[in-house]
C-alpha cells in the first residue's frame, strides 16, 4: 500500500449529518478540520426550519454546508423556492446536493434530481456547486441502465449550467465494484470528482441492517469483504480494510479524482476521531 496515496484519498474528506445533529457537530467541532464539507440530509419528518438551522450551524462552526434537496419529497415549486431563498438569505446556498429521494411516488412536481436541476432555480438562488448521486453496487429499485442514463444526464446538466460538481456514491463494503464503476463512469465521459461513500465506525448489527436495506450484499459477503466477524454482532467496526484496499488499487489515470465521504450515522465525533487515528497510523507506518 502507498500510505501517501491513502492520505491523499482522505485529504478533503466530507461528512454527513441530519438536521437534528447540530449538538453532535458542536461536540465534534475540534476534531474536524476547518473548511470540511458537511452534507445535511433532507429527511422526512424534518421541516425547512430545521434544515436551515443546521446549515447555519455548519457555517458558523467554520465548515462548508452542503444542504440536500430531495426531489421527490418536495411538495411544490414554491416549497423549493422557499428552501433555496432561505439558504440564500443565510449565505448557505453555494453548495447543494440534489438527490431523487426515497418516496415511491413524488410528493410534488419533481420526479427526480434532474427535474430539479432543470428548473433554473438553483442558479437564481446563488448555487455554484451541485453534488449528485452514484450507485457502484446498483439500486434495489432502479435498473442499472436507468441509473447510468440518469447520472450522465445530470452530469451534462451540471456542465451546461456551468456549475462545479461532484458525485457522492452510496456507501458500500466492497472495493471491486467501486473501482469497476469508476472506470465505467470515466468511459462514459463523466469526469466530475467522485466522493466514495463509506460508513463511519458503527455497530456491526447496524451496518448489516443498512447493507440489507440498500441491497449492497448479504451479511456473509459483507463480513468477508469488510473484515469483521458475524460472531460478534455487538461489536463496532470501521472502514479500515476498505480504505487500505482502495488506496492500494486506486489509479488516478483510470479512476479520476477521488475523495472519501463518510456516512456518520449520527456519530460525527466518533467518525472524525477515527479518521484522525487512521491517518496517524498510516503516517507512523510510513516513518517506520
TrEMBL record:
A Pfam family per the record: MTHFR
Keywords, alphabetical: FAD, Flavoprotein, Oxidoreductase
Keyword Repeat found: no
Cofactor(s) needed by this chain: FAD
InterPro entries the record matches: FAD-linked_oxidoreductase-like, Mehydrof_redctse-like
SUPFAM superfamilies for this protein: FAD-linked oxidoreductase
Pathway stated in the Swiss-Prot or TrEMBL entry: One-carbon metabolism; tetrahydrofolate interconversion
Family per record: Belongs to the methylenetetrahydrofolate reductase family.
Protein name as it appears in the record: Methylenetetrahydrofolate reductase
Organism encoding this protein: Streptomyces bangladeshensis
Organism lineage string: Bacteria, Bacillati, Actinomycetota, Actinomycetes, Kitasatosporales
Amino acid at each position: 500500500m502507498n500510505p501517501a496515496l491513502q492520505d491523499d484519498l482522505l485529504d478533503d474528506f466530507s461528512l454527513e449529518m441530519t438536521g437534528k445533529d447540530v449538538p453532535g457537530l458542536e461536540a465534534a467541532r475540534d476534531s474536524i478540520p476547518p473548511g470540511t464539507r458537511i452534507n445535511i440530509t433532507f429527511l422526512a419528518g424534518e421541516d425547512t426550519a430545521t434544515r436551515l438551522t443546521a446549515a447555519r450551524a455548519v457555517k458558523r462552526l467554520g465548515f462548508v454546508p452542503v444542504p440536500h434537496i430531495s426531489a421527490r419529497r418536495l411538495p411544490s415549486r414554491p416549497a423549493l423556492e422557499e428552501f433555496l431563498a432561505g439558504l440564500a438569505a443565510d449565505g448557505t446556498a453555494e453548495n447543494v446536493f440534489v438527490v431523487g429521494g426515497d418516496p415511491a411516488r413524488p410528493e410534488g412536481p419533481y420526479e427526480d434530481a434532474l427535474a430539479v436541476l432543470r428548473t433554473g432555480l438553483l442558479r437564481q438562488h446563488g448555487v455554484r456547486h451541485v453534488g449528485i448521486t452514484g450507485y457502484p453496487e446498483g439500486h434495489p429499485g432502479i435498473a442499472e441502465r436507468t441509473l447510468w442514463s440518469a447520472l450522465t444526464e445530470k452530469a451534462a446538466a451540471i456542465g451546461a449550467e456551468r456549475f462545479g460538481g461532484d458525485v457522492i456514491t452510496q456507501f458500500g463494503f466492497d472495493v471491486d465494484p467501486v473501482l469497476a464503476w469508476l472506470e465505467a463512469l470515466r468511459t462514459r465521459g463523466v469526469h466530475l470528482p467522485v466522493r466514495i461513500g463509506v460508513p463511519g465506525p458503527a455497530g456491526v448489527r447496524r451496518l448489516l441492517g443498512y447493507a440489507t436495506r440498500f441491497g449492497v450484499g448479504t451479511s456473509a459477503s459483507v463480513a468477508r469483504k469488510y473484515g469483521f466477524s458475524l460472531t460478534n454482532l455487538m461489536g463496532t467496526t470501521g472502514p479500515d480494510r476498505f480504505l487500505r484496499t482502495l488506496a492500494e488499487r486506486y489509479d488516478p489515470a483510470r479512476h479520476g479524482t477521488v475523495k472519501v465521504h463518510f456516512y456518520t450515522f449520527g456519530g460525527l465525533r466518533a467518525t472524525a476521531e477515527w479518521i484522525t487515528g487512521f491517518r496517524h497510523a498510516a503516517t507512523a507506518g510510513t516513518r517506520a
